[in-house]
Design a protein that fits this description.
By secondary structure, the protein is an alpha/beta fold. 21% of the residues lie in helices and 10% in strands. α2 runs parallel beside α3. The termini are far apart. The relative contact order is 0.18.
Length: 117
């Protein structure tokens, strides 16, 4: 699903409480087709851990410049994911970011708190 290149008009994607792991999440966050995405829920999946696997040439959700709501709660993500989200300058319309019930520590939340965008 994350590798789908045809849903250019996709605005909302709710994938909460599935068995999506790091590989599936990686495909979703680097997808450059879903430019109209406004609401994304990956809540309660099996991501567990870091996302260092995101290649440097890709920004985390780079093309989602219309993103308003992003729910990444209860997914077992670490500091590095929060840091990647925090340095994102593309989500100017973001209104809700839910990272609750994860394994994010001081570094991750410090980066979120220092977000200038």
């Amino acid at each position: 699903m994350g590798a789908n290149k045809t849903w250019a008009k996709l605005k909302e994607l709710y994938l909460a409480s599935n068995q999506i792991g790091k590989a599936g999440t990686l495909e979703i966050v680097i997808n450059m087709t879903w430019k109209k995405m406004s609401n994304l829920s990956l809540k309660n999946n099996k991501i567990k851990g870091s996302m260092y696997e995101v290649p440097n040439q890709f920004e985390f959700g780079k093309c989602w410049n219309k993103l308003r709501k992003f729910d990444f709660s209860i997914s077992g993500i670490f500091d590095d994911v929060a840091i990647r989200i925090a340095v994102n300058s593309f989500w100017e319309t973001l209104e809700l970011l839910d990272l609750s019930y994860n394994i994010i520590g001081d570094k991750g939340f410090g980066a979120i708190g220092n977000n200038k965008y």
